[in-house]
Amino acid sequence: MKKTLKYYGPAILWALFILIICAVPFNTPGPPGLFFAGFDKMVHCVLFFVLSVLYCAGSIRKWNTRSIRIEIAMKNTIVLISFGALIEMLQMRFFTWRSGDWNDLLADAIGGCMGIFGVMITSNALNHEKS
Known about the structure:
Layout lengths: L1 H22 L15 H25 L6 H24 L8 H29 L1
């Protein structure tokens, strides 16, 4: 357990931040889009993009590789989408002041996949540069 926290500590802290943000009731007057239509989806996408980058960085350090392997990327994708689904289920069932939305889960998945893809491209480019 301690070893997992050593590698995935920043990702775990960011995941807790996401969970808290998604549990807080927002009682703002005006339209539900806050700043513009789709702002909520963009926030979900960015939060999960950062989470996936932190999670992939932990995976690279844990497995002591120079880049992320495809099987690790697939596992990370499943974990991130499952976490997004858990948040949406909690919003539907327990956080009654919030509403779970399939579109939020889609934004979570897109942000997570964008982050994993970005880490794969960046690590491959850095490794190609070193060789």
